[in-house]
Amino acid sequence: MFYREAGDFKKTYSADNQTFPIKIDRVGYYLALIVAFLVIPFVINDYWANAILLPFLIYSIAAIGLNILVGYCGQVSLGTGGFMAVGAYACYKLMTSFPDVNIFFHVLLSGGITGMVCVIFGLPSLRIKGFYLAVATLAAQFFLVWLFNRVPWFYNNSASGQINAPERMVFGVPVTGPNTEAWATYLFCLVFLVLSALIARNLTRGMAGRKWMAIRDMDIAAEIIGVNPLKAKISAFAVSGFFVGISGALFFALYLGAVEVGEAFGITKSFLVLFMIIIGGLGSIFGSFAGAAFLVLLPVVLKVVGVDMLGWPTDIVAHLQLVIVGGLIIMFLILEPHGLAQLWRVAKQKLRLWPFPH
Amino acid sequence: MKTKFATMAVAAVMAAAPAMADLVFPSLSYRTGPYAAGGIPFADGYADYFTLLNERDGGIGGVPTRLLECETGYNTEKGVECYESTKGEGALVYQPLSTGITYQLIPKTTADNIPMHTMGYGRTSAANGKVFSHTFNYPGSYWNGASGAVNYLLAENGGDLKGHKIALIYHNSAYGKEPIRTLEELQKKHGFELSLMPVDHPGQEQKSQWLQIRREKPDTVLMWGWGVMNQVAIQEAANIRFPMENFIGIWWSGAEHDVLSAGAKANGYKALTFHNVGRDFPVFDDIQKHVVDTGKAAGAGDQIGNVLYNRGMYAAMLAAEAAKTAQEIHGTADINAGQMRDGMEALSITEEKMAALGMPNFGPSFDVSCENHGGPGLVGVTQWDADSQTWSLISEFAETDQEVIGALIAEDSNAYASENNIEMGCK
Fold it and tell me: Where are the transmembrane segments (chain A) (predicted)?
């Protein structure tokens, strides 16, 4: 009744092709942007920023990056943690080598560097597929973590092997280091997330995205109709690496502030981001958001309900969380392989016909 | 009549007002994951001591304590979540029991004016109170541990370590890398040979390291391990028949659960310590009476008297004593985190105090000052007896090489100060 395209006339080709063709979607989108930019910064506190919103924003960027590679281009990757580490260490080296350059450009450059590293590790994808590629990217994961642990140059020869984010300003407001305000770090990450999502969305519904999807659906057929698999696969690795690198840089510089590579960017991180896009929905930008929100919020909600409200022992709740996440992944794989995004799509389809489905 | 009633009302309000907030001690514990074996006894000891204070003394200075437990799983992200969710509750002091989380919280706690106590872990150069105003690591640090181990070997070998081969098997993280610099300095000074063997998280894979040890035949193996890594290392050492009395672990590698799984083969294994072991202290009678018998023991209640339980209890005792000191300095029973910091900086632990608390000779006597947050750094050695399944202290708490350590602390802390534009305090 409310959610339908009837009566919403499009007069130009571009209007017909916009991201949100239905009016209520568009309104919701702009409303979300207004709330995110103009309301939340005024009500945010340290707990909400550091425990919920920052991880959500940063993991969303990582999930978008991985979704381009796995969901759109069909190249399975288990190296996300390692690639995030590349972003983090690139950002650290840039921050300490060029302290006068704005952190905004450091984060962008870290994304670029990660993109290049990702391309190098993506080269095997031209020859191997599926599980074998997953193993090759797994090698990238272990190699990169080993590298950042082994070579002292990456952590400026510090005794402990930790990297610490020094204080950096944007427009005179500190966004990294200990003296940051919650709203500043939040807005900084939000800007990156919105830009990443816009770029990713438009890439995936354009020529590049169609090539990736053609490769994903059947690479030989794609090659026959004129898609160059070299360019398509390598560009997917590059774009994916760019976003994952940005998320790694933000993860280190804004969220954690101090990072130890084996602990923060281990194999568990790769799986976490992979679970996000599986639960959220492969091949969907919305799914990246939904999956990140789900896996960031679930432990917090369980903790608040279990420990703070019910007074259960902390270890029981922590174990329960493992059980629930594991169970949910199995459930999603069986019942809804396309994840939360598909549920959302189905709900929208139903809404269009509601209340007269026949 | 009316005035009388009003006076009574006012009096009632006055009386009710001091029923104020409690003293909040967050416990960033880990009872899950590969490091839970060490995290559980420490968290139990920490919790039980505060329960004891509440039950027996009605809290600290008449104010009840409240323990906020938050599960970190030894994971830095969860550590951040725990820190943010507990700091708003009026947390007085943080003890994260994780070197990774410590590194993260050093700048944050300083900015939020909350002290942090990293007893025998964390960033060693935090001993320099001029740079690290809110971080304390008394009574000893890893560098004291490294030096203490070398001093012990010197004493064993007649004061000469030339040509002595030492292998360091360590957890490949900030924690495990801490002693390397000190050992390298000491290597120059005493002329022993040092070889480094990193073990990656979580530490179950050590075959190649022990193969290397078997080949190189070092005279002594030092270990900086934690969690499941300890058990595996001791088992592997037993498998290659490495003489256990030449295998020395840091204080985080010397608890009952680390050696029990290797059975009789672990007999003679040594570990460093900065506090006493066993349960022959009057305080355990009080814990039995007020905590265990009343059914208020933390966790499963089966860890009492274990090495790490004692350490958690010791950490809680030092925190409680610092809170008492803060109450005296500021003349208020209801202290806040900033006042707690002052109390920690003025903390003085004497033998009489410990004896009065039922913990005679439990740890060293020491005074904390604005410049020195690290305490005296006295290190003792304990040895495992597999027959009686007990640890026993086999040496005195001995001095460590403060000359070497002091220089390293000054170097590292000054580097941190210049990196982060910190002005020196304590003028």
Answer: 27-44, 50-69, 76-95, 101-123, 130-148, 183-200, 236-259, 271-296, 316-335
